[in-house]
């Protein structure tokens, strides 16, 4: 009797939000099936014990007719000659001193650019910072061989169709 006297039955509520199954469907990934020759392409290079790191990269770049830049390096080297710019020459840092290192050194940093012809040879450069077993560091541009002492791993990026532009800032200002 009390049910009929005043209690109201609850009404069915509509659910909030989107109806079931109406969510955005995941989109398939975009896959490029064509390789573009002008883009940077990552390449890992492994250089074995006793090999010259500079010569190995140079030959690889020359055979492929592509430019390469070294992004990171890991390993150790020995017997290296560095060209250092500070501390030699006329006292103002305008000169070059050469430092030949014998022994085993860990690569702390290595940066390099190898450009194929017609870029001039001066556009190719390899500089390195090395650490010895006592924690001393030394660095400079490599002026000769850089002999791997164990395996050296280089993370590089290769590129083709290099546009080499010689900028003349002084002429443009006038």
UniProtKB/TrEMBL annotation:
Single annotated GO MF: DNA-binding transcription factor activity
Keywords: DNA-binding, Transcription, Transcription regulation
Cross-referenced PROSITE patterns: PPC
Gene3D superfamilies referenced in this protein's UniProt entry, alphabetically: Hypothetical protein, similar to alpha- acetolactate decarboxylase, domain 2
InterPro entries documented for this protein: AHL15-29, PPC_dom
Region called Disordered, residue ranges: 1-29
Example of a GO cellular component annotation carried by this entry: nucleus
Domain PPC: 37-174
SUPFAM superfamilies (alphabetical): AF0104/ALDC/Ptd012-like
Pfam family, one: PCC
Name of the molecule in the record: PPC domain-containing protein
Source organism: Genlisea aurea
């Amino acid at each position: 009797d009390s049910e009929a006297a005043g209690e109201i039955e609850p009404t069915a509520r509509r659910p909030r939000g989107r109806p079931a199954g109406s969510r955005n469907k995941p989109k398939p990934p975009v896959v490029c099936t064509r390789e573009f020759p002008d883009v940077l392409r990552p390449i890992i290079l492994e250089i074995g014990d006793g090999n010259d790191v500079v010569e190995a990269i140079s030959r690889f770049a020359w055979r492929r007719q592509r430019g390469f830049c070294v992004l990171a390096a890991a390993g150790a080297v020995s017997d290296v000659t560095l060209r250092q710019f500070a501390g030699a020459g006329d006292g103002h840092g305008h000169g070059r001193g050469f430092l030949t290192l014998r022994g085993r050194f860990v690569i702390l940093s290595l940066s390099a650019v190898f450009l194929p012809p017609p870029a001039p040879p001066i556009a190719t450069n390899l500089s390195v910072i090395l650490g010895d077993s006592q924690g001393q560091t030394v660095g400079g541009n490599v002026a000769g061989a850089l002999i791997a002492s164990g395996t050296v791993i280089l993370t590089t990026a290769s590129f083709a169709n290099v546009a080499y532009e010689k900028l003349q800032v002084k002429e443009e200002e006038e």
